[in-house]
Amino acid sequence: KSDLTVDALKLHNELQVGPLEISAGARKDTQMEEESDERLSERTSGTFLSGLSDCSNLTFRKVQRFWESNSAAHKEICAVLAAVTEVIRSQGGKETETEYFAALMTTLEVVESEESQAAVAYLLNLVMKRVPAPVLKSKFSDTTKAFMDIMSKQASSDTSSALRWILSCLATLLRKQDVSVWSYPSTLQAYHGLLSFTVHSKPKVRKAAQQGVCSILRGSDFLFTDDALSHHPATVTTAKFCIKEIEQAGGEALWS
């Protein structure tokens, strides 16, 4: 409900006209010009940059480099990060990974455009790897549902820009859960959802799902405890899925 979001979105829309040039100097003196040389107001540019260039969380350091990119997707990521950062600040937050996780999850549920959804998913993919495990455990149910909803909607969509980042997020979420959680049907359902995308028609989606599955089976936190299991509980399920896919592709002779 602050002026920040309005300013950030206004600037974001103006940025779509063309590439920007950012001069050196302090943030308050930063000048931004569109290709048409139409000067943006100092107040608007300052507000936007204040949530991007001075973001104190090192997780998003690489995002700051996107500012000079001509990519619309990169600009969208910058806009979302700036807006979310200012919202956290307006509420007295300290810009921790947990705060960004909460803010981005809330944003993911309300954004409408596919571009914005992809930007939020990308930022979530970055920050979730640094969110404390207890937080991801406590928010497992709600977070899984949000991810599964997006996966379901984009499974057969022509545009699946957010899908690969959501798959990576889901893998991170599952990797942080306790071994007991893998006895729940809801957990296996989410994992089967991830498995199904390992044979998706789009290479980037397949790769994200395959890497996610490997990270879960080989890198789940409980596999590195003193009383660790010899293998992940989802190993058998994964093997059955792979055999079924091979057989459906005409590879029955391999198992005779």
TrEMBL record:
Pfam families: HEAT_RRP12_N (PF25772). It comes from the Eukaryota. Residues 23-44 are annotated as: Disordered. Residues 63-218 form the RRP12 N-terminal HEAT domain. This is Pre-rRNA processing protein. It comes from Ilyodon furcidens. The lineage of its organism: Eukaryota, Metazoa, Chordata, Craniata, Vertebrata. The gene is RRP12_2.
